[in-house]
Amino acid sequence: MTNTAQTLDLDVVDAYLRDNLPGYEGPLEADKFETGQSNPTFLLKTPQQNYVLRRKPPGVLLKSAHAVDREFRVQSALADTDVPVARMHLLCEDDDVIGSAFYVMEHLNGRNFYQPTMEGESNETRAAVIDEMNRVLAALHSVDIEAVGLSDYGPPGNYYERQIGRWTKQYRASETEVIKKMDALIEALQASIPADDGQRTLVHGDYRIDNMMFEKDGTRCLGVLDWELSTIGHPYADLAAVIMQWQMPPGKEGRGMAGLDRASLGLPTDQEFIAKYCERRGLAGIDNFGFYLSFNFFRMASIIQGVYKRALDGNASNPERAMRLGGFVKVFAEHGLTALKT
């Protein structure tokens, strides 16, 4: 059986787990999760228990992208902190086993909210889930990176300077047409980088509600997922990522809350969420928030461009959705330019 972004050779995986994962017993079945555009993710099912396998996609990849080894390391380091994560079982960096590196982790038996509006839930549940999201974010940025062995998890220097440089290179490497607003956004961001304020924390890099798993019958977070973009950096990037998502249109594609009467749904305003985060971290407030918001629109536009390029190359995890996402690059670039002005 040939391994692709859509499949696994179950005989090979079963044999590997029997040899390397204590307590594992087959027979093995697998289902691919529909979500997750970057690293294909599979539910591994056995009669005894379930696991999750997350792998690099096969084929030629952009340098430093799809770093499943980093995902494994950071979640292992956070095991005994206030940041909820799945238990890591094993990491395989041998591409010859299934065609690319992968790791196996605990399957969190909870529920996932695809959109912040949480259709069908009560106002009390919505409010509690968003507050838990806020609590976990503040806890993440309060982790003692030296104590958990992550002080070398990201390079020193101005986080935004290196991130804008990195994502500009990634965008150029996957560019399929000239998008003038994206070029303008890159130039504007490079000219607007704030002075380093000394904050150096662990950052998730893609912090949003659909990258979290919650209790089936409660509002406690069981685990934060998808740590591929995590590094040591500046905490406001994660905070602004939440606000960026909320400013998108509601619905399956935008997954935001633009134009909604949030109070009637039990949901906080952007300002209320930011204020609660600052309270939890002991901050007086945040200046120049428009820059951090703009940075997130830029980074997401770059990520989407990469997803779109992989779809064109026939190497996307979810090809149909990846092709649709390609049209959002211009939208995110425009939002990024607007955020810088407000």
From TrEMBL:
Keywords: Transferase. Residues 33-254 form the Aminoglycoside phosphotransferase domain. InterPro entries: ACAD10-like (IPR052898), ACAD10_11_N (IPR041726), Aminoglycoside_PTrfase (IPR002575), Kinase-like_dom_sf (IPR011009). The keyword Metal-binding does not apply. GO terms for molecular function: transferase activity. Transmembrane segments: none annotated. The keyword Transferase applies. It is an enzyme of class 2 (transferase). Its EC number is 2.7.1.-. Pfam families: APH. PANTHER family: AMINOGLYCOSIDE PHOSPHOTRANSFERASE DOMAIN-CONTAINING PROTEIN (PTHR47829:SF3), HYDROLASE, PUTATIVE (AFU_ORTHOLOGUE AFUA_1G12880)-RELATED (PTHR47829). This is Putative aminoglycoside phosphotransferase. It comes from Falsiruegeria litorea R37.
